[in-house]
Amino acid sequence: MGSYLDVGYSYNGGAFPVYVAGRGKWADITQDLTTGNITVNSVSARRTPWFSQSDFNVSHNYKVSESKVIRLSATFSNLFNQRAVTAYYSQIDTANYSHFIAPGGVPFYFGGEAYSAYEHAYDWKTLINTSCNGACSPGPITVNSQYGKPYLHQLSRNIRLGLRFTF
After folding, report:
1. CA 149, CA 157: separation in Å to the nearest integer?
2. By C-alpha distance, which of 103, 124, 123 is closest to 114?
3. Which residue of 40, 57, 115, 163 is 20 to 30 Å from 64, comparing CA positions?
4. What residues does 101 pair with on adjacent strands?
5. pLDDT, tens digit, for every residue of 136-150?
6. Type and span of the H or E element at 132
7. 114 φ/ψ angles, rounded to the nearest 5 degrees
8. What is the pTM for the complete model shown?
């Protein structure tokens, strides 16, 4: 988990997501509403909070005859219905509008030139303000409104009932 951007190409909502700050690193990003320019304030490690889950199982056997047994059971997963965040939305650019950064100014289909540009260090913090959109006219990316917000949560309480007949 970490901050990622579409790099090199984008088609119908993005492709080739890359962890631009490193895996597990999050960028504190703000976008000026008047100019659209993006500022990356800091990059830091971000983890999901600790969470606990209490599961419970109960069962009882009823002997019907010498060799026949009926077993009733109930399994409660997440008995106390604890709901911690387990993942944050990590895509910086929006999937609703075609944006991608192009290191060296070349999209991926330029072959060797693109490969060389992508395999060397590039300043992604500057490139997000001069990205390519669907027509490849430069400008800042559109920051995803869900970026950094809770995405997945711990599963809610589940109850599984069981009946087993052994003969």
Report:
1. 23
2. 103
3. 57
4. 7
5. 567 788 888 898 899
6. strand 131-133
7. -65, -45
8. 0.72
